[in-house]
Amino acid sequence: MMCALVAVPAMVSAQGAGQEALALAYLRTDRAVAARPLSAGDVAAFHGAFDRATLAFFTGRSAQAAATLDSLARVAAGSEGAYADADRAARTELAAAPSQVKWLRTGTDSLPWRLFVPAASARASSSRSSSPRPRTLLVALHGAGTNEHVFAIAYGAGELLRVAESRDVVVAMPFTNAFTRDGAARFDALVRAVAEATPIDTSRIVVLGHSLGGIVGSQLAAARPTRIAALACLASPCPAAPGVTVPILDIAAESDLVIPIARIRAAVDAARTAGAPPVELRTLPDQGHTLMVGPSLGPALDWLLAQLRR
Fold first, then answer.
1. Cβ-proximal residues to 107 (8 Å cutoff; 6+ apart), any chain
2. Residue 60: alpha-carbon gap to chain centroid
3. Which of 176, 201, 203, 227 has the greatest number of CB atoms lying within 10 Å of its CB?
4. What CATH number corresponds to the domain at position 127?
């Protein structure tokens, strides 16, 4: 979803209050869908309504977007009790989000990011008698309009962290927008910061990006081909970036109203015609731009890890 996942103080501006309402509405919907998956017959209509809320946000209609998402949350929850549970979970996540932020110094400025270290890796790193092996690092880049919290607390109620825990993968989740300027240098600084916190293989990094995050990820892959081993893009025309030589997986939603699948197919076809990089395209029927992310994370990470074994 393209909305600001931020917790704001009680005394806020009208704009800040609007962002808080939108973030809360999004997380309610995310939690409700994760707790009670949509029936097959409801997927297309629900995803379409969600995408229209996203488009409303991008065209300055934040109140309309929040109202639509809140209605969707009630539908997905199925009862007022379940809706209240989703609301409590969303409020708790938003309140805790700022405490998880790290700040990365890059030249004269800094950017926020979050770090996830699997429990087994964290225990090994803290043991004085062990020499933990370097883990795979996944850099997860969110879509436009949101921030470093979205992979940790949304996109399927934090599905990426559950998947990463089960695969013993370290995850760095930076503020994607900062990488649109001096991206390669910021990437290097991020990798150094992760390596200082936990053992990782700094020469075989994998990248996952949603929407804008996929485009930024492809730019980083072109700039750092000896460090980034593979790239997975979700609802993103990422193969269009010139100079990419690493393998790419692009998972597209057939009912995406934000970045239509025709645009993604065109980017994939152009990359294949150019001969590099190798691109695999997978499509998801009836799904839309943002709700497709949660169920795509496990397959995307498994594909990325398979590239490292080649």
1. 182, 185
2. 22
3. 176
4. 3.40.50.1820
Same domain membership, residue 160 and residue 70:
no
pLDDT digits (tens, 9 = 90+) for 109-135: 899 999 999 997 666 655 554 567 899
Q: At what angle do helices 80-96 and 14-35 cross, to 10 degrees?
A: 120
String of DSSP letters for 238-282: GGGSTT--S-EEEEEETT-SSS-HHHHHHHHHHHHHHT-S-EEEE
132 & 206 share domain: yes
Place of tokens 């997860």: 140
**Which helix (H) or strand (E) covers residue 121, if one does?**
helix 119-126
Say whether 101 sits in a helix, a strand or coil.
coil
Please, which pLDDT band fits residue 11 given cuts at 50, 70 and 90?
very low
Q: Classify residue 9: in a domain, yes or no.
A: no
Say what angle helices 293-308 and 155-167 make with each other, to 10 degrees: 20
**Strands of 248-253's sheet in order across:** 102-106, 109-116, 170-174, 137-141, 205-210, 228-234, 248-253, 279-284
User: Could you say which DSSP state residue 143 is in?
Assistant: P
Phi, psi of 257, deg, nearest 5:
-95, -15
Which DSSP category does 179 fall into? G
Query: In this structure, which amino acid lies at residue 141?
Result: L
